[in-house]
């Protein structure tokens, strides 16, 4: 499916736009391509855009003082990615966004999102429910971190991104879960056995 | 300030409602009072409402298999509280909500929120930006949990709720931060010394 078709299908799951409204909405998105390893947002950057993933896989991450990488989020096709803290509060980026594979994206600016939300009520409805979903997902992840439960984190990750285990290098999955490579293998094998 | 005035001031920070729109909006809220220790949402409940805090302090929490309490959130005046996972996805509650002090609340049902969002575009705008704020706060907290950085979690908590240290029993603050009482005292003393 092309970028336009994918975005249309994605929006239609939540909101009802007329064909003319969708055309207008889509005209504010800018198609972008990046190569594996390219950096889209770097800590300290000004952040003006968010990205709808058309193909490929991204990660948002930060490196702590001990030079350990923590992965906040993966982004697969039909997911959105940015440093939302920086984007929403107009502060400098505190995380990085880069490409695990070659990717195609649709970029939407903060300014255009707000304009579209003002102009088309259903667009505002769409973005409200998109964020509601993200809020709930962030709280679920927080609960499993508070409970220090790597098994639940692993199972939630596989539910969110069933194809991830074969697509993404294992050290990145371990960095998302906050566990060692050895623990990841153990979780993978015990998960397989109950499937 | 009375409940109506507090809600009006809170909404006005983000959205512009006419006096007639605000009256209509406010007519969907139901005032409620609870005593210290009363439970508002219990794990396993169906959740139909969210709550705007007028006075007092609430906590959302869960107890893990080791009977250890984890606090997901405090809610002070002008904050909103519910089990948003259960409320938004119409599933059973996975956390509890109870009263740290006597509280006064304004209750809004899921059904009425959606109706108001459809009827008044500025109400949809308000709730979108309220959730955007919650999403960013949840991700910040997640980052500090991933980084296992109790000092940052403490400083973020004090920034969010400057009055909390004197209002809330110390063992609850420790349960929010995921640290012992002794670590909390150390963080409090080192924080005081740099103020």
TrEMBL record, chains A, B:
PROSITE patterns: CNMP_BINDING_3 (PS50042)
Residues annotated as domain Cyclic nucleotide-binding: 13-116
InterPro entries for this protein: cNMP-bd_dom (IPR000595), cNMP-bd_dom_sf (IPR018490), RmlC-like_jellyroll (IPR014710)
One Pfam assignment: cNMP_binding
Source domain of life: Bacteria
Annotated TM spans: none
Name of the protein in its database record: CRP-like cAMP-binding protein
């Amino acid at each position: 499916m092309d970028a336009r078709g994918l975005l249309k299908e994605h929006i239609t799951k939540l909101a009802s736009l007329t064909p003319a409204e969708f055309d207008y909405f889509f005209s504010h998105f800018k198609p972008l391509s990046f190569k594996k390893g390219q950096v889209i947002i770097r800590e300290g950057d000004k952040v003006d855009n968010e990205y709808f993933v058309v193909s490929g896989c991204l990660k948002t991450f930060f490196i702590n003082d001990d030079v350990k990488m923590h992965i906040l989020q993966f982004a697969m096709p039909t997911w959105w990615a940015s440093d939302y803290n920086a984007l929403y509060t107009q502060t400098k980026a505190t995380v990085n966004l880069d490409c695990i594979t070659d990717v195609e994206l649709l970029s939407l600016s903060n300014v255009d999102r707000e304009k579209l939300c003002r102009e088309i009520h259903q667009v505002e409805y769409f973005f409200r429910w998109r964020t509601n979903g993200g809020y709930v997902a962030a709280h679920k992840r927080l609960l499993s971190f508070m409970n220090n439960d790597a098994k639940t984190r692993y199972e939630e990750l596989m539910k969110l991104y069933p194809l991830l285990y074969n697509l993404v290098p294992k050290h990145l999955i371990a960095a998302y879960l906050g566990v060692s490579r050895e623990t990841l293998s153990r979780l993978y094998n015990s998960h397989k056995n109950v499937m």
